[in-house]
């Protein structure tokens, strides 16, 4: 059992990392059963479709701990499958995200063992390094089920089963489909990747199927270690140039189809079929639109979770039973041009009913507005979020759980149980955002029935720290803190903790402890701005080649770093686009920087202002240079930016409300003081604003005013 | 005759009162502010809030004490905030990851701060350039240095002892350590300014450089020494700022120079040089800190805060001019 398991265990390591590493590549969940389900795997029995009733009845209430490898669509789907299975079988599921960190993984397992879990479910960070965590569980007598990412075959592992896909079978299906499309004849090329077992398995499947058809000839075979779309694009381009008669390309992973999409039109070879593996969203979109002819297979992570629970339920009833295979294979789904659209369909919307209250926040009157992100019992890993963009953070959020919240409440502002005194220190009010946050906070305080003390710190952390000291002296009941300096605010947070005064931070600090943070997903903001620019560039019909300039702050601000990451990720797939960073603080500094950039880079094809001052400076420089056709996108919803979008001078902006964060901060502190459970992280909404929705966006962000009035000078 | 006898009498009395008001204007403004803020927010007068004022004033006062020497000398130093930032990030980087113990790190950043001050003095004196221009340039240079050293990132300081000693600690579980440090620096400065030849030279050069030269004072050396010493003041100020922030921040202290110059001028030190007062600087800084604290308690927005601060400075300068007119 172990040897078979060990032999197969590495197969999925890269396969699962590849889609997991792809930016914003949600795993498509077909609304109904997959249209082209795979056949039975010869080597191992497939996972049952649903939790088995007999086992359900027999297994007593249990506690399962799942160590998630990453937070992305793939692993979220696994968690969702696990959760449904565990909930249905009367168990309790704990989830901790290791973020691919062995230390965190081991700590998570130790944490679970301390909580007396009955089964450990784990997506292993490292085939060898993670064995320490598995051994810990083994020593504690806790059975281990490995999901998606397994151990090195050479490692001794006592594992109940390893849940995975059959890559060989999936790749064979892709190859059969492609060869059928080309009439089982002609030249084909193989675009190979890192020589790990999973890639070798897929390429062997392609070759074995091709070998069945004597009229199909492998005209080229290339291999690159680099797992990126540009690397794959270059490889495919070289292969097709060397094999001018090739009619199909087989690529080892999900980057093959997006890579081919950038290459085939330039070569005039749009008729070439592309076979790939993974079924990431970008592949499916290209197949659905017909931009690329071909096929891919998709793994079913949700079923991984369900299968893991089924295996546990069997084991729970009888650990010695023999019908639990060492390897449980979940079928893959073939996605082609013909059926890809089915995988793009939005999930079926249920009838708009009264929103349900997430169980973890029962008693919180605003909980119906919460959309829980991840496990509500987990404390959000803010430090890891920042670490992804190389920003060091050491923050402890005291409340578990993270939720997304809307700009517009369906629930009401909670009423204070008693007349609380709340201190609100805001970093700055001499701009539109700060002023609106302050005004909204005052209104929210009145609505909640609390007394609000205000401090305008004007980006002076010492002034903010002083205000906190004063409020502690005054004996305030709670504080809402919008930090001036994300690190220096630790002094205030420490003082509040010492005084035992609850605090909600509006924007996430980099140091200190807080009860909750109210933030926007700034990576997503950068991504939205990047996609707006990308779409405008593609629509312009010009080649995706040349410099793209973005302007940011001259120092590292966490919001800037996270936005930049989201933006750069969007353009990572274009090897001929050079991203150039310039800096400044005020609009005039940005004007000068961009003015120089326009002259230094006459071939500039796009630009992005990372925040409003940057955009406004860049916009004016663009106008001053008569560069009307230079595409510019933005973040922030300052009125001049929205007016410029309306006028077609800016392609769009990623925005967020100044009202929502203030209101959600107030609900958080009032609920906390009222004794209701609150989530540790509130993510308020981001919005993509273009010419189509800019007027509605203006009215949304500036209630009672219209863009037309603003542009006519009738309102400020 | 009666009238003639009475008028000078009345005039003398009102003149004495007026002179007293002018002479102790800093104290009077301070008392007035305390009364107003106490009436509006009684929590203002609580001892812990008063200590909070002193703590938050401490690093400005220390920079202001150094600036008192410079302004009395007829100079100006706009780079103190940038030197303070270099000190903070330099120390944080040196002790990070136990790269170096705190004491040698402190010594290194002290030397660095003195060298930066020395550079200001040498360029100004030897290059015969207005100190305003030199320190305007070095303000940018030193800020750029702090940003370059850290690549713009804050550098956390994890040495709890340091943070307590210079920032969040207390003496007798009551008096914040920055207050203690600033009071020690105040006394040392008073001694230097009033009881030593160096202080005398500073006042003499600021009052009449030509007379000072004729008297055999080495003006260049005194000026360079004063700017070097100001680097030392910025060093202490920077350490307190870093400790209060729990980190070395490359953008910290951007308004420090203007804040401390305002305190010095409010305290009666003449911007034209020659006249200076250490106690006056304490009073001026106290006024600024009291205003900050009081308006923070009142929840005043930044617009109002800077408006009131500006008005108070104008008032103080008018009173200062009034004093000089009377003296003439």
List the helices and strands and how they pair.
The complex is a heterodimer of chains A (716) and B (328).
Chain A: H1 2-9, H2 13-21, H3 53-58, E1 63-68, H4 73-88, E2 92-97, H5 102-114, E3 119-122, H6 131-139, E4 144-147, E5 161-165, H7 167-181, E6 186-192, H8 197-211, E7 216-223, H9 229-242, E8 246-251, H10 256-267, E9 273-275, H11 281-289, E10 293-298, H12 301-317, E11 327-330, E12 333-336, E13 371-373, H13 382-387, E14 394-397, E15 402-405, E16 421-426, H14 432-448, E17 451-456, H15 461-474, E18 478-481, H16 490-498, E19 503-506, E20 511-514, E21 516-520, H17 522-540, E22 546-552, H18 558-571, E23 577-583, H19 587-600, E24 606-609, H20 612-624, E25 632-635, H21 639-646, E26 652-656, H22 659-674, E27 681-684, E28 686-689, H23 694-701, H24 707-711
Parallel strand pairs in A: 1-2, 1-3, 3-4, 4-5, 5-11, 6-7, 6-8, 8-9, 9-10, 14-20, 15-27, 16-17, 16-18, 18-19, 19-21, 21-27, 22-23, 22-24, 24-25, 25-26
Antiparallel strand pairs in A: 10-12, 13-15, 26-28
Helix pairs in contact in A: 4-12, 5-6, 7-8, 9-10, 10-11, 14-22, 15-16, 17-18, 19-20, 21-23
Chain B: H1 2-23, H2 25-40, H3 47-72, H4 80-95, H5 102-126, H6 131-150, E1 155-156, H7 160-168, E2 170-171, E3 175-176, H8 177-195, H9 197-207, H10 209-214, H11 219-245, E4 247-248, H12 256-266, H13 278-297, H14 302-327
Antiparallel strand pairs in B: 1-4, 2-3
Helix pairs in contact in B: 2-13, 3-8, 3-9, 3-11, 3-12, 3-13, 4-5, 4-6, 4-11, 5-6, 5-11, 7-11, 8-9, 9-11, 12-13
